[in-house]
Design brief:
Layout: E1 5-6, H1 15-28, E2 47-48, H2 54-57, E3 66-70, H3 74-83, E4 88-91, H4 92-98, H5 104-111, H6 126-135, E5 142-147, H7 154-166, E6 184-186, E7 192-193, E8 201-202, H8 204-221, H9 226-233, E9 236-238, H10 244-256, E10 267-272, H11 275-288, E11 295-301, E12 317-319, H12 322-335
Parallel strand pairs: 1-2, 3-4, 3-5, 5-6, 6-9, 10-11, 11-12
Antiparallel strand pairs: 7-8
Helix pairs in contact: 4-7, 7-8
Length: 336
C-alpha cells in the first residue's frame, strides 16, 4: 500500500534532508538494543513538507520570474528554491542588505545608533529621492511572494513583503494600480506550534495575520478603494493541511506510488493527531469528491494534539497510536 509522510513544517529543509532526519529519529525511538535495530530508509518521494506541492503545482509557472522568498535559514530556503527550478529567487534579507534604506532598523542595529529621525544624519531631499529611485531603475519586477517558513526577522520580512505586495517594483513605485494583484503563497497555516517553551509559540500562520493586516492598513493609508483592497487580498493563497491544494497534491503523489500497472487509488486515509488540520482535510476532501468514487477516511490517534473528549471533526475512528491505525486500515481494506 503506497504511503507518504505529511507535515505542515519543513524548516527550509529539502525533502531528502527531512526524510533522512526523520528516518534517524524513527530508528532512535526503537526499544531494541542498538545492535538489533535495522536501518530505516525513507525515500524523499514519500516526504511531503508544507511547501513540497510548490515543486510541481507552482514553481514551473515561476521559473523565469523574480520571486521574493520569505523564510529562514536563508541558505536552506534558497537551496529549496533552486531545487524547485526558481532561477530568480530573492531572499528578503538579501534584498534588505542590497537596498539598506528599506529597513531603517537594520542600519541602526548594525551601527549601534538610534533609528529615530532626530538621530538620523541622512538629509532627505529631492536628490536623495532621485538617487533611491535610480537604484531600482533596472530592477526585475517581482511576480510572486513565497513564504516558505518562518522568517527570523519579522519586521524586515513584513516591511519588504508589504512593499512588494503594493508594487512589483517597490524601489521606484510605492503603489502600482496598473499591476495585477501580487500572488502571495503561504506554505503553513498553523498560527501556533509546540516548541521547547511550555506554551505554544507563534508560527507562520501568525506571520500571515500580521502581514495581511498591515498590507490592508497600508492600502487604507494610501486611500485605495475597498473594492481594490478586497481584490488584492484575494491573491493571498494558503497551502498546507487542511487546504484543498495540499490534499489534491497528496492524491496525485499517492497515485504515482501505486506499484501495480493499471491500478488507481480511490480510497485514501489520513492518520493524524490534529482534528482541525489532519481530519479537517479529509472532511473537505469528501465534500470536494462528493460526486466521484474518491473518498477519504480520517484516522485520529491519541498521541498528540487530540485528547479524549475533544471534537473528532468526523474522524472515521479514534485509536491509540500509529500501529493501531495501520491495523485498522489494513483490516478495513480486507473487508471492502
Amino acid at each position: 500500500m503506497p504511503f507518504v509522510f505529511v507535515t505542515n513544517g519543513g524548516g527550509g529543509l529539502t525533502e531528502a534532508a527531512y526524510a533522512g532526519s526523520m528516518a534517524s529519529k524513527i530508528r532512535a525511538a526503537s526499544s531494541l538494543p542498538e545492535s538489533e535495530r535495522t536501518p530505516v530508509v525513507i525515500d524523499q518521494s514519500r516526504m511531503v513538507l508544507s511547501y513540497t506541492p510548490w515543486h510541481t503545482m507552482l514553481a514551473p509557472t515561476l521559473k523565469d520570474s523574480a520571486v521574493l522568498i520569505i523564510g529562514d535559514p536563508k541558505e536552506k530556503v534558497l537551496e529549496v528554491a533552486r531545487n524547485y527550478g526558481l532561477k530568480h529567487a530573492v531572499h528578503y534579507s538579501d534584498y534588505a542588505v542590497r537596498h539598506y534604506k528599506i529597513n531603517p532598523f537594520r542600519g541602526a542595529k548594525e551601527g549601534g545608533v538610534s533609528h529615530t529621525a532626530v538621530a538620523n544624519t541622512t538629509v532627505a531631499n529631492a536628490e536623495g529621492a532621485a538617487r533611491s529611485a535610480s537604484e531600482g531603475a533596472d530592477e526585475k519586477p517581482f511576480e510572486a511572494i513565497l513564504v516558505m517558513c518562518d522568517p527570523y526577522e519579522w519586521f524586515e520580512a513584513v516591511q519588504i513583503g508589504v512593499d512588494v505586495l503594493c508594487s512589483p517594483t517597490p524601489l521606484t513605485i510605492e503603489f502600482d494600480p496598473t499591476a495585477p494583484p501580487m500572488p502571495c503563497h503561504f506554505s503553513n497555516p498553523d498560527v501556533l506550534w509546540k516548541a521547547e517553551h511550555p506554551f505554544p509559540r507563534f508560527g507562520q500562520g501568525a506571520f500571515k495575520v500580521a502581514l495581511k493586516a498591515l498590507y490592508m492598513e497600508r492600502m487604507r493609508f494610501l486611500r485605495i478603494p475597498q473594492e481594490t483592497i478586497d481584490e488584492r487580498i484575494a491573491a493571498i493563497r494558503q497551502w498546507g493541511k487542511p487546504t484543498e491544494w495540499t490534499y489534491r497534491f497528496l492524491e496525485e503523489r499517492l497515485r504515482s506510488l501505486v506499484p501495480l500497472p493499471n491500478v488507481t487509488a480511490e480510497r485514501f486515509y489520513m492518520v493524524g493527531d490534529n482534528p482541525t488540520s489532519d481530519i479537517e482535510g479529509t472532511r473537505r476532501s469528501n465534500i470536494f469528491h462528493r460526486n466521484s468514487t474518491t473518498s477519504w477516511d480520517g484516522v485520529l490517534v491519541r498521541t498528540g494534539v487530540y485528547k479524549q473528549g475533544d471534537e473528532t471533526n468526523g474522524a472515521s475512528v479514534v485509536v491509540d497510536g500509529i500501529a493501531e491505525a495501520v491495523d485498522w486500515i489494513l483490516e478495513r481494506e480486507k473487508n471492502l
